[in-house]
Amino acid sequence: MKSKRRPYAEQRPQDLGGGVWSVPVPIPGNPLGYTLVYALESPRGPVLVDAGWNHPDAWEALSGGLAALGLDVTAVSGVVVTHFHPDHAGLAGQVRDVSGAWIAMHENDAALVRLMTAYAAGEHDRFQADMLRRAGADPAEAGRSMGERPTPPAAPDRELRDGDLVDLPGRKLRAVHTPGHTPGHICLHLEDADRLFTGDHVLPDITPHVGIYPFDRDDVDPLGDFLESLTRVGELGPLAALPAHEWIFPDVAARAAQIRHHHEEKLDRLLALLAERPDPPTIWEVAAMMTWNRPWDALSPVLRSMAAGEAAAHLRTLEARGRIRRLSGVDPVRFQALDS
């Protein structure tokens, strides 16, 4: 099936009706191309859902796109961020600077922003190097796979919890906690219009990255959380989905079910691969065994690191379900299938 995805150059700001607008904001150098920022009408000034990447071209697109729709970025009253990633939260601080708007995000992601702000560059490098070593990457590859320390987004003024209503007078915009892609990811249910702003949680053609960091943590289960969140979103019914990437689509429940099925099949394939292995593999070896959108040898070092994070999340879910175990006292960590 041919993808409906269009390049950023073909995107335009749109009036979606019912006091909702969308503005495509470019992500320089990223294959996703752009973030769809949404504006919602409010008597105090528009409220934005996400803000886009912190880059001059992105700022020009956001402010100019709002102007093309008859909206003024200096009149924005609030920015509610679906999650802390830079293509969503990056420009929130600049919007606040020019408008005095509040910034809101879920309390779990707000805690991560505080942690990132306090984390020195040297600590970040040591953290990554040790994480990659414990996953089984050889030292040379570990050095190449270390990504740059991300710049923390602006700290929020308001923290949301599941079920909270966003400050949007005259409308009902409710936060739905959907952890997985990040611990504090939220979807936003516009209850008076049967619309769901899905952020990265439910996208029409691709699935979001769900990783675990550090790779060998055994006290969290982000993929398990993600699958539960998909079930919860599905229970909201066939709402119109307004995602942060790609395109708007109907029936978020149907797409959520497809994504759950995709991951369950991936878990089944991984369990079969582990059962066939004569020796328990490392996380890095598991990542190399799995199927990605390109062959393992064609992945860049940084993409291999992301793949390892996703492999680790799938391993952790299988472990939480009692289908595999991690060997004790082994460094790097290794996993073994259990008899069913």
UniProtKB/TrEMBL annotation:
Residue span of region Disordered: 137-163
Signal peptide region: none
Residues of the Metallo-beta-lactamase domain: 34-245
InterPro entries, per database record: Metallo-B-lactamas, RibonucZ/Hydroxyglut_hydro, Sec-metab_biosynth-thioest, WH-like_DNA-bd_sf
A Pfam family: Lactamase_B
Protein name: Glyoxylase, beta-lactamase superfamily II
